[in-house]
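tool=predict chain=A
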Amino acid sequence: MAIPEPSEGHSDIEAVDRVADLARSRGVRIAVAESLTAGRISALLGRGEDAASWYRGAVVAYVEDVKFDVLGVDRGPVITASCARRMAVGVRRLLGADVAVGITGVGGPGPREDCPPGTVHLAVALPGRTRSTHVRLPGGPAEVVEAATRLALTELVAALESLPADPADPADPATT
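tool=predict ok
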C-alpha cells in the first residue's frame, strides 16, 4: 500500500477537497471512528467544502471501553482488522452515515498487544461491504499518526470513487 507523500502533491487539504467533491457527487454522508489518529481525520473532514451537507461526524474512541460500549467492537484485542471493521460499521450505524472509516493502531514508541509501533488497521464501511487495509508505517508516533491520517484519506477517496455517481447530481454533466 503506497501512502502518498505530501511532497507528491497529495496534501491533506487536497485529499479532503477530493472527499468533499466525491461525497457530494455520490450523494453520500460520511462518518469516522478514530483511535490512533485521535480526531485528526475528523478535524480535517470538518474543514471540507460544504461539510455540513456530507460529513456526519466522528467518534474518537481512544480507549478500549469506548470501542466496546459505543461502537460495538467485541471485547478483546483492539489492534486488529476486525476491530477497525467493527469501528467503521459501528460509527456508520450510530451516526446514520452511508460511508464510514474506522482506524486503530500503534503509534509508538513501544509495542502494544504484541503489535510493533507503526501497525495500522483501517477499514471503510460502504453500503453492503467493508474494505480493510493493514500496514506498518515507519517513524515515531507523530510521523505514524500523520501517515495514518493520509492513508485514511487516500483509502476514503478510493472507496468513494468505487461508488456510482448520484443520478440526481446536478454537477454531473451526464445527468443534465
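Residues 172-176 have pLDDT under 50 and may be disordered. The helical segments are 12-26, 40-45, 64-69, 81-95, 141-161.
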